[in-house]
């Protein structure tokens, strides 16, 4: 490994490390897995990335295996940011290259975090309206097509990416954006990999026409390469949609142009606690029609857990009890936000009261969010295990989902409080599981199996909020043969030698996942 690192260091400006301690630092992401790479590379520029990928591809063509895994801040929860080959960290690709306030566009590298980007854009009165962990990178948001809390109002990351630069599996660099008939004809006439990609899109749209039509009629699902449905519109071909939710299996994004929004007004919020799930669901359904920027819910046991660690919100004067806490936010004009808040208050059942955010209690609202972090880290030596975060549950089945979770709690004899976004239909359940024991690791896989069945029974999807990666993939039902063949043809065209994250998505293997379940607790990470 040290010889391999030395060889690569002679050919790139950045650094390649074979040292055990450094390799171990990149052996975990936020998932339940642990997988140590052979070498870790920190490229400095585009040419470095091209050389590293080309090297891996050339080895594969000669029968040697050194697959490539790309990583940002390592917050992937599905095991897609770790691998046993060449791990390329884009942490140095973290610069904003150009801001055009008049056109509301920004050109940036993929390693910059959402928080860093929005801090810089705020000076210009602009923002990328994504309500997600500020430590996520732009590249990570694209690779996972993350469903954020404000996605119902603003559309999510998919709607803000104008163009990307991508390094393909053979080291070629291409720009992805919509191409008209003449440009497509020129691309297809090329004998290089880019030309084959454009020919592939037309080929699969003919070959798998019925499957693609069926996919187009479904609720969005990040499994496989379902975004192929958006790659062809009439005579226009756009390869860009295929990068979303691809988790580094089709190419490496090295540059991004994003469309921006004017910085909205600070959200006007209100908080309500319900001790009856049916009342809560009726209220949530009504509020969703008002198009809030925020419509989040939390099992009250989350607040109860945080209170035991000194984080009891001032909103709870007495015992917290069981039920759901709902937080609503509107970021329109002051008048319209106030009017919508009044409508929400009027829709409350008798005996249920709301607390509206004011200048005086704003800090108390913020303190509740910090109580979620307390809950997620209220287990010894680490974070509550994110076995299967970001699942999609249709609003009409949310009550059924809650009932089935209560049944599962009895079956598994563990508490399973839920939190998430009702407006985005995106939810998380964090069981208290000790991965340092064999029984705990078995319990994690058992929970995943049962939980996957519940999500399916509620007409939901494990991959409605983020893709399958490695972990979710093993709990998902098998894809129909035609759909799987479609995805395999896409993967094989982009990556003929199967060097880009081969153990992720279609390549995930149950026994490989079981073998790499981590034996150490997850480190503290803020939500």
What does this structure look like?
With 527 residues, this protein is of the alpha+beta class. It has helices at 2-9, 20-25, 46-61, 114-122, 138-144, 151-154, 181-188, 193-207, 209-216, 277-288, 300-307, 334-346, 362-376, 398-412, 438-457, 481-494, 510-515, and strands spanning 15-17, 39-42, 68-71, 86-89, 96-100, 105-108, 126-127, 161-167, 173-176, 232-233, 236-237, 252-259, 261-262, 268-274, 294-299, 324-330, 354-356, 391-392, 418-421, 426-429. Helix 7 (181-188) packs across helix 8, helix 11 (300-307) packs across helix 13 (362-376) and helix 14 runs antiparallel to helix 15. The model has no long low-confidence stretch (mean pLDDT 93). A hairpin with a 2-residue loop joins strand 10 (232-233) and strand 11 (236-237). The protein has 3 domains: 2-92 and 488-515, Uridine Diphospho-n-acetylenolpyruvylglucosamine Reductase, domain 2; 96-262, Uridine Diphospho-n-acetylenolpyruvylglucosamine Reductase, domain 3 (2-Layer Sandwich); 268-457, 3-Layer(aba) Sandwich (Vanillyl-alcohol Oxidase, Chain A, domain 3). Helix content is 35%, strand content 16%. It has 17 helices and 20 strands. The strands form 5 sheets. The protein has a 7-stranded antiparallel sheet. The chain has a 5-stranded antiparallel sheet with strand order 5-6-12-8-9. It has a 4-stranded mixed sheet with strand order 1-2-4-3.
């Amino acid at each position: 490994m040290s010889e391999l690192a030395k060889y690569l260091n002679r050919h790139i400006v950045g650094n390649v490390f074979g040292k055990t301690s450094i390799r171990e630092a990149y052996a975990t992401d936020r998932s339940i897995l642990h997988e140590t790479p052979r070498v870790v590379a920190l490229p400095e520029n585009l040419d470095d990335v091209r050389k590293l990928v080309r090297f891996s591809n050339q080895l594969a063509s000669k029968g040697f295996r050194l697959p490539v895994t790309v990583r940002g801040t390592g917050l992937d929860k599905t095991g897609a940011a770790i691998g046993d080959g060449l791990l390329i960290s884009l942490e140095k690709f973290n610069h904003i290259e150009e801001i055009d306030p008049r056109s509301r566009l920004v050109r940036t590298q993929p390693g910059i975090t959402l928080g860093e980007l929005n801090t810089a854009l705020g000076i210009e009165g602009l923002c990328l309206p994504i309500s997600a962990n500020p430590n996520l990178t732009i590249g990570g948001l694209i690779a996972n097509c993350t469903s954020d809390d404000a996605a119902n109002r603003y559309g999510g990351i998919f709607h803000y990416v104008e163009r990307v630069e991508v390094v393909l599996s053979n080291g070629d660099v291409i720009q992805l954006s919509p191409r008209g008939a003449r440009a497509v004809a020129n691309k297809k006439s090329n004998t290089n990999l880019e030309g084959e990609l454009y020919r592939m899109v037309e080929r699969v749209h003919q070959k798998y026409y019925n499957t693609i039509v069926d996919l187009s009629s479904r609720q969005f699902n990040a499994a496989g390469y379902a975004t192929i449905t958006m790659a062809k519109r009439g005579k226009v071909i756009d390869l860009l949609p295929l990068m979303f939710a691809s988790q580094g299996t089709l190419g490496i994004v090295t540059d991004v142009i994003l469309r921006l929004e004017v910085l909205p007004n600070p959200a006007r919020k209100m908080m309500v606690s319900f001790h009856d799930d049916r009342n809560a669901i009726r209220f949530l359904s009504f509020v969703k029609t008002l198009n809030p920027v925020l419509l989040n819910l939390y099992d009250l046991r989350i607040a109860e857990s945080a209170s035991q660690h000194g984080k009891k919100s001032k909103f709870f004067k007495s015992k917290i009890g069981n039920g759901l806490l709902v937080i609503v936010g509107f970021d329109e004009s002051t008048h319209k936000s106030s009017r919508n808040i009044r409508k929400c208050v009027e829709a409350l059942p008798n005996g249920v009261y709301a607390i509206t955010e004011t200048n005086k209690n704003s800090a108390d609202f913020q303190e509740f969010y910090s109580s979620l972090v307390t809950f997620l880290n209220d287990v010894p030596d680490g974070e509550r295990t994110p076995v299967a975060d970001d699942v999609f549950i249709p609003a009409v089945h949310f009550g059924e989902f809650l009932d089935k979770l209560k049944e599962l709690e009895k079956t598994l004899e563990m508490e399973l409080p839920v939190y998430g976004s009702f407006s985005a239909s995106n939810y998380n359940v964090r069981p208290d599981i000790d991965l340092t024991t064999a029984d705990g690791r078995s319990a994690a896989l058992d929970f995943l199996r049962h939980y996957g069945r519940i999500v399916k029974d509620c007409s939901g999807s494990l991959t409605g909020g983020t893709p399958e990666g490695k972990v979710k993939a093993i709990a998902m039902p098998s894809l129909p043969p035609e759909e799987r063949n479609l995805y395999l043809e896409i993967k094989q065209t982009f990556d003929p030698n199967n060097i880009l994250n081969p153990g992720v998505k279609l390549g995930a293997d149950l026994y490989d996942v079981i073998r790499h379940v981590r034996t150490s607790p997850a480190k503290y990470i803020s939500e």
